[in-house]
């Protein structure tokens, strides 16, 4: 597993609206809040910037990231939807970045090896514009690597589409990278999702 150099954006500004008062990104995974685990994993695989899109400062998620090497990106308009985070995050990338990796913070099955596998598939000399993780059955998911010539398109996004318009426009230039099982897609949005996932792992 070789570290890579591209910057990574971690989307963590959502409201956990389906968790009935709990914060899914502060749920414990491997003995720590999921958000901290994800940020530590990213820091272990890239030597580039790790940009974490977060709610407005004072949110408890900041405390979960204490002491880590990352760039906090407050998203005061996060209630608009995911595209608010995408607009700000892609605008915050280094001007000379040839590509950048994006992933959601609530995908607890993703591993450092998965991220490196997607990064290793990137070939900027081809016509491809997007490389993204997929399930073992070929369903597209995360992480997603975008070539720099797509960055400017994120400035015009509104709502909660999550960049789907940009991915759809690049069809024919998207490379899917199969990852184990459902690592690329399994998110945990409800208490029931968390209970089922923990039961499968034999965790409490």
Write a structural description.
The two termini are 30 Å apart. The chain has a seven-stranded mixed β-sheet with strand order 5-4-1-6-8-7-9, sandwiched between helices. The protein has a two-stranded antiparallel ribbon with strand order 2-3. The protein has six helices and nine strands; from the N terminus they run E-E-E-H-E-H-E-H-E-H-E-E-H-E-H. Helix content is 26%, strand content 20%. The protein has helices spanning 34-45, 60-64, 82-91, 112-121, 164-169, 191-201, and strands spanning 8-11, 28-29, 32-33, 50-54, 71-74, 99-104, 130-134, 140-147, 174-178. The mean pLDDT is 93. A hairpin with a 2-residue loop joins strand 2 (28-29) and strand 3 (32-33). It is of the alpha/beta class and 204 residues long.
């Amino acid at each position: 597993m070789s570290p890579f150099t591209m910057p990574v954006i971690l989307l963590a500004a959502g409201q956990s609206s389906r968790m009935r008062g709990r914060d899914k990104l502060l749920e414990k995974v491997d003995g720590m809040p999921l958000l901290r685990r994800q940020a530590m994993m990213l820091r272990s695989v890239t030597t580039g910037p790790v940009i974490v899109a977060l709610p407005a400062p004072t949110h408890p998620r900041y405390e979960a990231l204490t002491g880590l090497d990352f760039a906090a990106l407050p998203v005061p308009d996060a209630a608009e939807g995911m595209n608010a985070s995408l607009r700000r995050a892609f605008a915050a990338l280094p001007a000379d970045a040839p590509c950048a990796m994006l992933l959601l913070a609530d995908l607890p099955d993703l591993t450092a090896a998965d991220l490196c596998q997607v990064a290793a598939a990137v070939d900027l000399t081809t016509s491809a514009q997007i490389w993204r993780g997929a399930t073992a059955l070929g369903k597209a998911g995360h992480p997603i690597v975008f070539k720099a010539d797509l960055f400017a398109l994120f400035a015009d996004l509104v709502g909660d589409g999550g960049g789907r318009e940009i991915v759809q426009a690049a069809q024919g230039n998207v490379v899917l990278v199969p990852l184990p099982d459902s690592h690329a897609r399994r998110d945990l949005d409800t208490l029931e999702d968390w209970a089922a996932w923990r039961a499968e792992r034999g965790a409490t």
